[in-house]
Every structure is written in C-alpha cells, then in structure tokens.
Amino acid sequence: MDKEHGRLEERKxxxxxxxxxxxxxxxxxQVFCIERIREIIKTGKRTKEVxxxxxxxxxxxxxxxxxxxxxxxxxxxxxxxxxxRDVTFxxxxxxxxxxxxxxxxxxxxNIAISLLRLAGARYIAPALRYCARMxxxxxxxxxxxx
Length: 146
Description:
Layout: E1 2-4, E2 7-16, E3 30-40, E4 46-55, H1 64-87, H2 101-118, H3 124-134
Antiparallel strand pairs: 1-2, 2-3, 3-4
C-alpha cells in the first residue's frame, strides 16, 4: 500500500511455476499477476489494473516481493530518464529524423542528463538553465579547463 501523488495505491502479486511446462517461452522461471487498485484521494475515483508477466528468474532467485519491486523499478527509469527527455528536451518535437541523427541526439541528451545528475542536480530543467547562464564555465563538468 502506498500513498503518493494524491492517490492511494494497493498492489497485490501472485506468482506461479505451474504454467512453466505449458508456455512456449524460452527460459521461463515463473509467471506472475499483479493487481493494482488506485484511488484518487480528492475525488474518491477508483481504478483497477491487472497485468501479467513472465520472468526467467526462478522462485529462489526472485520472491514475489522482489518481482513487485523490479516492476516498480521499471517506472523509476521511465520517470527519471525518458520523461526528462520528452519534457525537458522536448524530444518528441525534434526534427532530426534520418540516418544516425536521432540516435546521436538521444545519446547526447542522455550524456547531458547523466553529467548533471553526477554533478548533483536533482532537477534537470533548472540545472540546464543554470548551465546556460554559466557559459564556458560549464565545461568543468567535463573536466576540461579553459
């Protein structure tokens, strides 16, 4: 049970190895079902979501709580990297669309985000604005001395 972002969220997980012999999936270790029930505190509106998954990890390697944490951890990556690229860098409106350009630009954005995080920036947008004001001094993040 969690209370974050103005909502209550209850998560339940069930795991099983009973389907392993029936699945045409290489290296299956166990299957799982996660049920999420969310309630928006202000409105009382409730939603229910059920997701199913397969993992190559055996029950000895990953207990149900471990799997639940791994699934939750996936969203941490989404929120800390992809959301920043989409919103702060406005990546979806980028006009570079051919050849290696999109991949190169995504790599440059990832490097910028990583450098700012290593420098201690908790929020990328204000850190970018700060760097823009610093001019040539910002290359110190790269270890370059002018």
